[in-house]
Amino acid sequence: MILCNVNWLLQIEFMFPV
């Protein structure tokens, strides 16, 4: 589950880089 959450966060980072 942790990896899935991390992957989701990474996708958000790539889509909305700050």
Automatic annotation (TrEMBL):
<protein>
    <submittedName>
        <fullName>Uncharacterized protein</fullName>
    </submittedName>
</protein>
